[in-house]
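Give me the fold.
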Amino acid sequence: MTVAATAISLALGLVFGAAVYAHLTDPVRVGAVAGDLGLPRIVAWVAAGLEAVLVVLLVASPRLGGLATVAYLAALMVVFGVARLSGREIVDCGCFKSKHPVSARWYARNLLLAALALTVGFRALEGLGSRGLLAALVVGAAATGLVVVRSVRLEIERTATRSSVAIDRDDCRAGHASR
């Protein structure tokens, strides 16, 4: 393991450690995120537990931790993507005590974290060969890209719908005022 891979693994461990800390110090919010996703609260606590396991793996077995992190982030992005595609508004992901909505920026951040984790776990993937690895990366990137694009389109449609409803209400008020 190179010094760079070790540093990346430790940095990822700190990132997930901070997320676990945020989950533990604000249990109400953790439950709210699960509710936003349409899932039982226990799922959010399982996710927090998995993040704690990732911290341990990233430190104790960086290659395995890197691969587990990629899998976790991919699953997380799919769950949030499906929820958004089904019309749910997700106020935030509950990580790092942020109050930023899940958006294309959230997906980009998680893709960056997954790419970093993949560099750590890359040697464990050497058995796939370069073509298999490239295929896996392309499929993963394409699927994530589709979710991001659809998510952005949904947000644009929601904004347009809200604007038209507000305009319709104003038109109704104006109509009543002129009578």
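The CA atoms of residues 5 and 120 lie 5 Å apart.
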